[in-house]
């Protein structure tokens, strides 16, 4: 189902936006015309001004568009402009906007049970979602679940579980990692300073080490994976010998593919090494699959690319319910048994409607060829991006193409970062702010893409149901954008 390019006949702005905030008057007053509150329509520009005035300045935006409809990979603004969405809500709407099966399940649940606080009793959809997720786990030991609302909350829960289960305090994270913006999860986030700057002391007991990524290790992009793993292992060993003793360390937390850090897959050899370190020192391995889970990288969870990897705790969110707010942690029953009843909970944790959407999402994964489409469209995406990286017009702009499945990034060169200039002839002029300029041009042409990391990187994270035609359209716009920046210099 596709929406028309102009929504003026089917989606009047005054009704689609303003009626969502107008509340009906009490019946007695509704019969008195002079007591009625008029339904004051606003233009898209007026709504954008309203948002700029009343939405916290702490919330950034790509643009001040007012989005009123979404279907599949298409979004429509209040003016009727169509946008091809290659962001998927940052890896949330993995089945596309308003997938009919997921929306129908949520609508049905709204008329059955909207909310039951999880500390009061079980509710059916909570248990049914666990039943659906159990067979998908990357390791059979993962069998004890707790659902919360957001990825940050799930990270906080994982830290609490790890500290309680081990009786130890400290947590090791990785440079470039992103785990949230709350005080606990923000302390583990090392992708950008913006998320925690000027907000005072964060959660104590957190130590960061180098991720096996050439930027983190200060080596050229051409450095072999084997050497990156060796260097990262050495840095972790130094951390455990010089800064944080293993006997004081509760957990190591890692993303199998760094998200905000730049869509950098972790080499399987390094993940296996972490498992060995954790087993040796009674440290729990926490794997954060918030962005990389639910077929985003071609397998149900990105950690499955490392055969036999056993997380002690796994964190998930985003794609689990295709846009409905739910997150979770899963561990084993031996760890779970060490928790005090009541130590986990939350008013909206494991909401019944979100759980119903999660069940429907898993059913779609089971019945449709999502993994196959990810594989085909990933190959199409990498082919297009690698062609740009090798093209005579654009190769001097592109430092690296990387990722897994439909979690893919292009990192551009930066004249102020010598590592990114490897292989570029001396004297080559490198344009400034390549990624932002490419992103702006893409948006002008109707393609939404996001930048990521503190390096000049654009990420591609379309819905997993993206078609061959939509991928061709997106790559055509992106190619045009990169060539335009190359020409302008």
TrEMBL record:
<dbReference type="GO" id="GO:0030170">
    <property type="term" value="F:pyridoxal phosphate binding"/>
</dbReference>
<dbReference type="Pfam" id="PF00202">
    <property type="entry name" value="Aminotran_3"/>
</dbReference>
<dbReference type="InterPro" id="IPR015422">
    <property type="entry name" value="PyrdxlP-dep_Trfase_small"/>
</dbReference>
<dbReference type="GO" id="GO:0042802">
    <property type="term" value="F:identical protein binding"/>
</dbReference>
<protein>
    <submittedName>
        <fullName>Aminotransferase</fullName>
    </submittedName>
</protein>
<dbReference type="GO" id="GO:0008483">
    <property type="term" value="F:transaminase activity"/>
</dbReference>
<keyword id="KW-0808">Transferase</keyword>
<dbReference type="InterPro" id="IPR050103">
    <property type="entry name" value="Class-III_PLP-dep_AT"/>
</dbReference>
<keyword id="KW-0032">Aminotransferase</keyword>
<keyword id="KW-0663">Pyridoxal phosphate</keyword>
<dbReference type="InterPro" id="IPR049704">
    <property type="entry name" value="Aminotrans_3_PPA_site"/>
</dbReference>
<dbReference type="InterPro" id="IPR015424">
    <property type="entry name" value="PyrdxlP-dep_Trfase"/>
</dbReference>
<dbReference type="InterPro" id="IPR015421">
    <property type="entry name" value="PyrdxlP-dep_Trfase_major"/>
</dbReference>
<comment type="similarity">
    <text>Belongs to the class-III pyridoxal-phosphate-dependent aminotransferase family.</text>
</comment>
<dbReference type="InterPro" id="IPR005814">
    <property type="entry name" value="Aminotrans_3"/>
</dbReference>
């Amino acid at each position: 189902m596709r929406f028309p390019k102009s929504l003026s006949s089917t989606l009047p702005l005054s009704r689609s936006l303003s009626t969502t905030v107008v509340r009906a008057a009490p019946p007695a007053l509704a019969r008195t015309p002079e007591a009625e509150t008029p339904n004051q329509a606003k233009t898209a520009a007026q709504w954008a001004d309203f948002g700029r005035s009343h939405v916290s300045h702490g919330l950034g935006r790509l643009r001040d568009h007012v989005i009123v409809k979404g279907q599949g990979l298409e979004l429509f603004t209040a003016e009727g402009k169509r946008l091809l969405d290659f962001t998927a809500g940052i890896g949330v709407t993995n089945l596309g906007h308003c997938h009919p099966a997921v929306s129908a399940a949520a609508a049905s649940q709204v008329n059955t049970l909207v909310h039951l606080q999880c500390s009061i009793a079980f509710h059916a959809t909570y248990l049914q979602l666990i039943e659906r997720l159990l067979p998908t786990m990357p390791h059979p030991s993962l069998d004890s679940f707790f659902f919360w609302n957001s990825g940050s909350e799930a990270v906080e829960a994982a830290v609490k579980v790890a500290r309680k289960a081990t009786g130890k305090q400290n947590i090791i994270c990785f440079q470039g990692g992103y785990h949230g913006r709350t005080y606990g999860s923000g302390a583990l986030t090392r992708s950008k300073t913006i998320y925690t700057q000027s907000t005072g002391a964060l959660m104590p007991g957190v130590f960061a080490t180098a991720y096996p990524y050439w930027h983190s290790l200060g080596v050229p992009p051409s450095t072999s994976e084997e050497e990156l793993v060796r260097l990262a292992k050495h840095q972790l060993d130094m951390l455990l010998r010089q800064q944080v003793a293993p006997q004081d360390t509760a957990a190591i937390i890692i993303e199998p593919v760094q998200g905000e850090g730049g869509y950098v897959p972790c080499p399987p050899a390094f993940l296996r090494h972490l498992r060995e370190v954790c087993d040796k020192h009674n440290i729990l391995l926490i794997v954060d699959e918030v962005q990389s889970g639910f077929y985003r990288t071609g397998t149900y969870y990105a950690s499955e690319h490392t055969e036999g990897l056993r997380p002690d705790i796994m964190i998930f969110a985003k794609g689990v319910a295709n846009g409905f707010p739910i997150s979770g942690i899963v561990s084993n029953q031996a760890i779970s048994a060490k928790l005090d009843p009541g130590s986990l909970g939350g008013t909206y944790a494991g909401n019944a409607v979100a759980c119903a959407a999660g069940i429907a999402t898993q059913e779609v994964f089971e019945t449709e060829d999502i993994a196959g489409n990810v594989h085909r469209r990933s190959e199409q995406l990498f082919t297009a991006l690698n062609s740009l990286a090798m093209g005579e017009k654009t190769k001097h702009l592109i430092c690296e193409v990387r990722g897994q499945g439909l979690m893919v990034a292009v990192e551009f060169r930066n004249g102020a970062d010598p590592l990114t200039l490897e292989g570029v002839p001396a004297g080559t002029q490198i344009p400034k702010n390549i990624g932002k300029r490419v992103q702006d041009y893409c948006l002008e042409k109707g393609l939404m893409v996001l930048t990521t990391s503190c390096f000049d990187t654009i990420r591609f994270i379309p819905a997993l149901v993206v078609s061959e035609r939509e991928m061709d359209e997106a790559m055509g716009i992106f190619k045009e954008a990169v060539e335009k920046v190359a020409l302008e210099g």
